[in-house]
Amino acid sequence: MESRNPVFGRSEQFARGGYATFDTRTPTADDLQGMYDSPAARSRNTDRMTIDDVVVRTASLFAVLLVAAAAVFALIEPNDPILMPVTFGGAIVGLVLSLVISFSKKIRPALMFVYAAAEGLFVGGISLVFNSVYDGIVMQAVLGTLGAFVSMLALYKFNVVRATPKFTRVLMIAGVGYMAFAVINLLVSVITGNNAYNSPLGWLIAAFGVALASFFLILDFDFVEQGIRNGLPQEFAWTAAFGLLVTLVWLYVEILRLLAILRGDD
User: Fold this and answer.
1) Are 240 and 227 in contact, with CB atoms under 8 Å apart?
2) Domain-located, residue 138
3) In a 10 Å sphere around its CB, with 0-12 CB exposed, 13-18 middle and 19+ buried, how is residue 249 labelled?
4) How far apart are CA 106 and CA 219, in angstroms?
5) CA nearest to 107, candidates 207, 208, 11
């Protein structure tokens, strides 16, 4: 199955049977003895991506995002005029950088850290706004995001849900449709003031967004697994970490919006 995730989709290395090329001839007795006598290979010896590499790099990007978000939360008041420029500025910079990183032929860790910082400003800003209206909603959204991540990882690990070609195709069609709806809804809300999320079915739309973002984690897990299986160089752990960060930020925002709708009558 070829990758459909925008982060991984342009990289043949994350396709099944992708990067590594092996000698398929039958080994001789001397070959087997040499392999037996050689020391056990580790990630630093093979220079191939491991799950530990992905975890460490994902954690480092998240640390930058959390520091930036915490700074917004601690240093800016909800009614501060600078809040909106910081929030939307972070969103715009994050969007531009995500496109540059996704379509670049080179792996750019430095840009990924800048992206994480920009997204931190955006996440911190919208979290501050929502929390000023619904006290405690940010902690609920964080716990909801963590719960969704763990649940999807368990479903993937125990083969309850797999990234089959059909599953991937349906999910990508739904994702494109939802993104198109989000853009149209934003334009309509700016022009007319009507927002679909404020309608009686708003909670259902938001719940669909949460489910969609959650299922995209299955694709992320599959792409990471295939990358490791294909013997990718360690540097591709940055690409895997970036993909996970993008999906988790999306998931958090969707959960935050759903909780706000459900608490709208508080």
Assistant:
1) yes
2) yes
3) buried
4) 22
5) 11
3-state secondary structure of 231: coil
Q: Do residues 116 and 65 make contact, with C-beta atoms less than 8 angstroms apart?
A: yes
Q: What angle do CA 12, 211, 156 make, to 5 degrees?
A: 55
> Would you say residue 57 lies in a domain?
yes
Cβ-contact 217, 247 below 8 angstroms: yes
Where do the H-state alpha helices sit in 43-164?
43-46, 51-75, 83-103, 109-133, 137-157
SS3 232: coil
For the chain, the domain total comes to 1
Do 124 and 72 touch, CB atoms closer than 8 A?
yes
pLDDT along the chain (266 residues), means of 10: 46 44 43 48 63 94 96 92 94 94 91 97 95 93 95 92 90 91 86 81 90 94 89 90 95 94 75
Q: In angstroms, how far is CA 79 from the centroid of its own chain?
A: 30
Nearest C-alpha neighbor of 68 from the set 110, 109, 125, 139: 125
- Is 16 within a domain? no
Neighbours of 184 (CB within 10 A): 11
How many residues are present in the chain?
Answer: 266
Pull the structure tokens for residue 100: 């540059």
| Calpha distance 217→236 (Å, rounded) | 18
User: Residue 135 is part of which domain span?
Assistant: 47-262
Cα–Cα distances in angstroms (integers) from residue 3 to residues 46, 112, 125, in the given order: 24, 20, 32
Which residue(s) pair with 233 in the sheet? 48
6, part of any domain: no
CA distances, 154 to each of 133, 182, 183, 222 (Å): 34, 29, 32, 13
